[in-house]
Amino acid sequence: MDPLPDSLQLDFLPLITGSFSSPARQNPTSPMIEAAYAQHGIHARYLNCEVSPASLANAVRGARAMGWIGFNCSLPHKQEIIKYLDGLGESASLIGAVNCVVNRGGRYIGENTDGSGFLISLRSIVDPRGKRIVVLGAGGAARAIAVELALAGASAIILVNRNKERASAVAQLISEKVGTEATVVEWKSAYRIPEGTDIVVNATSIGGYPNEKALVDIDLETLSSGMIVGDVIPNPPNTTWLQAAAQRGCQTLDGLGMLVYQGVASIRHWTGRSVEPAIMRRTLEKIFKVTS
Fold it and tell me: Which residues on adjacent β-strands are paired with residue 183?
């Protein structure tokens, strides 16, 4: 039989992308990314993978063997993943954490799109330039967000974390590399938000699935109506933390925006294509029954 003309050739080998995390079951990135692929005619798939810390090295080797063009990594891998990569992009090198791995000529390079994704989402409400900001946590997401806020001109950043040494490393990074005032508070009990704070961001996993009722240990009486309160958790979008802040008159920012914009950046890294964020946001809102 003669081969089909080029115009009729079928391609059953999509580009493969995905996510490595643990737990992975609650991660809504897959339908969000695949909605963008479908809308823009990108012949690719996105696989959500449960990868334990002990299996991370093997997962990366597997992705290499199967020719994945890239993948996201989430908790708890954003710093540990670095040892299995071939290099770091500028953002990941500065932040010291990776959430997006890109196959560049057979070399896996780590990038960080978390901080820029959060920043774009925040700017839909307010410009952080000159603002006094409290960041709860000191993990990969917190590092990325704190660095991006410093680069965006925040006047002062307070890092609140139970592990003081970990938070101090982030504060030192911000002070030395960016020059922004950064202080550390050891999180021993209900934290009191200082007067004059403009923005408070929960960059921990507290309040995310499957512990949706958990609330960050904050003295809620220190929240005021002039504050903007954000969360990085996408599932559920309206966390207990955001509900408590809204009840006190704060303007809130859910984690869906950060997820969408880091996804837009990840797809651009992997495919070179710019995708429309609206389809990704609509997909997530439909999943979580969010009314805009």
Answer: 158
Each residue of 98-120: pLDDT tens digit? Answer: 999 999 999 999 999 999 999 99
Contact present, 225 and 246 (Cβ < 8 Å): no
- Which residues are CB-contacts of 36 (< 8 A; sequence separation ≥ 6)? 42, 263, 264, 267, 275, 276, 279, 280
For the record, the structure tokens of 247 come out as 């009840």
Distance CA 9, CA 194 (A): 64
Active site residue 164: no
**Any idea which residue has 């997530």 for tokens?**
284
**Catalytic site residue from 78, 83, 286, 289:** 78
Identify whether 210 is preceded by a cis peptide bond (ω within 30 of 0): yes
AA identity, residue 220: L
What is the spatial distance between Cα 220 and Cα 196, in angstroms, rounded to a whole number? Answer: 15
Are 279 and 250 contacting, i.e. CB atoms less than 8 angstroms apart?
Answer: no
Residue 155's contacts (CB-CB under 8 Å, 6 or more residues apart) are: 130, 131, 132, 180, 181
Q: How confident is the model at residue 135 (pLDDT cuts 50, 70, 90)?
A: very high
Q: What angle do CA 152, 153, 157 make, to 5 degrees?
A: 100
Task: Quote the pTM value.
Answer: 0.94
Omega of the bond prior to 236 within 30 degrees of 0, cis? yes
29 SS3 class: helix
**Number of CB atoms found within 10 A of residue 7's CB:** 5
Domains in the chain: ranges and CATH:
10-112+257-288 (3.40.50.10860), 115-254 (3.40.50.720)
Pairing, β 100-104 against β 70-73 = antiparallel
